[in-house]
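Q: I'm a student working through a structural biology exercise. My instructor gave each of us a protein and asked us to get a predicted structure, then write a short paragraph describing it. Mine is Family 1 glycosylhydrolase. I'm not confident about reading structure output yet, so if you can add a plain explanation after the tokens, that would really help. Here is the sequence I was given:
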Amino acid sequence: MSTRFPREFLWGGATAANQVEGAYDEAGKGLSIVDTLPGGKARLAIVASESFDFSLDTARYTYPNHKGIDHYHRFKEDIALFAEMGFKCYRFSIAWTRIYPNGVEQTPNEAGLAHYDAVIDTCLAHGIEPVITLSHYEMPLHLATVYGGWKNRALVGFFERFSRTVLERFGHKVKYWMTFNEINSAAHFPIMSQGLVVKTDARDAQAKFQAWHHQFVASSLATKIAREVNPNIQMGCMIIYATTYAYDSNPVNQLAAMQRTQSFNFYCADVQANGKYPYYAPRLWDSLGVTLAIEPCDLELLANNTVDYIGFSYYMLTTVNETHAEGEDTEGNLLGGTRNPFLEASEWGWEIDPTGLRIALNQLYDRYGKPLFVVENGLGAIDKPDSNLYVADDYRINYLRQHIEAMADAIADGVTLMGYTPWGCIDLVSMSTGEMSKRYGFIYVDLDDTLSGSGDRHKKKSFSWYQKVIATHGEDLAL
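A: Happy to help. First, here is the predicted structure for Family 1 glycosylhydrolase. I'll explain a few features afterward.
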């Protein structure tokens, strides 16, 4: 029987170390930048202020990432639940600070390596392929405060050492890897992926583009190491993709939408997938006053070590309105823009556009011709459990169903799609707000925004629905 999804399609789910593990100071782990981010809806505004300097202020703020959902101690229980759903893969990240607490040590922390050995082996024992992100918004704090983040070329060497250690340790049993999570996110919140705050030039285009160059070099080095360790490794890049529309047919808005697609959606992937800076880069740099410092061997390294696939997150779109035609601005989309009158939005204001995912898949495949992997997608919502802590989350099922239909349509269009790992397959601490109440998972975790609660896991309605989706290979999407 023919199916809409290839037989080798990787159905699974995704998390990040800093949002689930907790145990922020156990077994030799050092502080990461996320360990200094306060919880609450004002999180991104606080870290974008001129006064923020990574200092911990427990008198004023809570730090929910310190505890997370205790996945560090409960990973076997959680992975068993993923296996019960039928996961073919599990995307997670390695906390850099568990391996090199400050990022600068000469010798890795064996306790950290042993922990991820156990996580990987547990996945494999359940027939689940690990999909590992090397750096997911949690670089060592020391590298941000002492070295100034990724604008400093010294971080290339530190990341190369970290990557070599991890790839040599796990590269013979883990096939799928990615280098930097949502590398292009620095356009909007450079603290997360580049470790830059206002005091270290987060608002300066020169610093951000130089930091990106260093990350491109570091990503190429990690890709080179991976192929030396095990030629079967598949190394990917990972970007945010926000399908971009012009507000109307005014050519000014059409041009602006095209340029935003280039500068945000394509710039980082162009370098990592094509191995060179794109043709539009010089004009972009010139418009921003950017002059890159590029060392002699950098461009050759980029050209010779391109990624094997494009991983991306898809949550929202952007609608561009340069002419300021009548329209309502929306900050809820996190990436800004004008509200799209044809779309509904989530409780956090993120506009919902399944068709935009089909467009994204076609645009990326048309541009790069490389396999694609939707490694984040999901609906953050306030779940209201009953007295037995059961959540009937039909709204989440409907969201995911529509996006899976869009992926099936893109495959029918001719796109090569490797897999799908919905974000927050188990409830976790939100990146943007540091809250537990913004839930994505198939599994309810009994913790509130203060992280009070039992921490026990409870299957939502979407758990059994996704179990059926995987069992039928994406054919049965009914509620």
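A: Here are two points you could use in your paragraph. The domain at 10-471 is CATH 3.20.20.80 (TIM Barrel). The chain has a mean pLDDT of 96. It's a good idea to check both against the output above yourself.
Q: Great, thank you!
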